[in-house]
Design goal:
The protein is mainly α. It has a domain of 50 residues. The chain contains 3 helices and no strands. Helix 1 crosses helix 2.
Amino acid sequence: MGTNKLLLGPLPKSETVKLTFACPADLKADLDRYAALHAQTYGEPVDAVTLIPHMLEAFMTRDRGFRKGRIAKAHP
């Protein structure tokens, strides 16, 4: 893999709450492939279930519409 970095970097430790969701089989396969690549890149074994919350957090952090809505709601 070399020096390439993934958009999702090393995973921080955090408190968790368990959620259950369903996804298409092809998305699960992609998540498994991403987890394998993440483990290879950062040298830490990880599975798709562990990555999903970090992927969602990264997505929401980069979503301008969501950020604007959160800011507007916090400062009415």
